[in-house]
Amino acid sequence: MSDTSLSLKQQQVVVIGGTSGIGLEVAQAAARRGAIVTVIGRSAKAGDNIRAVAADVTDSAALAKAFAAIGKIDHLVLTAGARVGSPRLTELKREELELAFNVKLFGALFAIQAALPYLSPTASVTLTSGLLSRKFGPGGLLKSTLNAAVEAAAKNLAKELAPRRVNVVSPGVIDTELWGETGAESRVAAMARIGQTLPVGRVGTPQDVAQVYLLAIENGFVNGAVLDVEGGGLL
Ligand SMILES: NC(=O)c1ccc[n+]([C@@H]2O[C@H](COP(=O)([O-])OP(=O)(O)OC[C@H]3O[C@@H](n4cnc5c(N)ncnc54)[C@H](OP(=O)(O)O)[C@@H]3O)[C@@H](O)[C@H]2O)c1
After folding, report:
1. Is 191 in the pocket of ligand 1 (CB under 6 A)?
2. For residues 120 and 74, is the Cβ–Cβ distance under 8 A?
3. CB of 125 within 8 A of CB of 14?
């Protein structure tokens, strides 16, 4: 059987949120497969063979400028998310809710809008939600609502932007700086505690998740999908 997966060699891949955590790992994995990779974040931290452009995803003019400089985009990945808490309704603050939505949902939508003139007809767009989109409980209000909205938006865009493909990767608990400084006692303890509650007995790594973004990018028949990578956390 012939291999139908799309080659990433010399393909332009842009990762918004690629300066840290999951996005950085996706960027590095794509670069290892021969892609020309640009990461965008408020900081311009790049890895080996990766170009970095500083832009805030809530600043449409800055994004438009970044995309104009990059030119044609073959694959767009969106992982940017604000580090917000898990408020219950009584603790919910408008500023925190607005920040979370401005970065992850509105930021993604306006970034895709700004990228549209440069997105190749065979492009893929991969957004990021999170397990709480379909797991509910006290403290989940903000993230459940936000991530469910991202999934709904992506499915709609998969139809609107066809033949371009639009997918979502929905991570469970992944050990990144979202959970605190590397090596911090509280982060290590939280990862161990949460890992014990999962069927696989551990939390995820950025590498676990990056593989799934690569699947969404390289498999030309994956479209409108929400790809769960959560060690069984949804069960
Ligand atoms: N880690 C988990 O357990 C987990 C679970 C479920 C879902 N997720 C989702 O996965 C995504 C990535 O999470 P992560 O763990 O990799 O977090 P992270 O390490 O905090 O990375 C977040 C990324 O977003 C960028 N970012 C934040 N605000 C931005 C802004 N206003 N404009 C541009 N870029 C911005 C950051 O770059 P700069 O700081 O350079 O701006 C960084 O590159 C997020 O959407 C998160 O909600 C993560």
Report:
1. no
2. yes
3. no
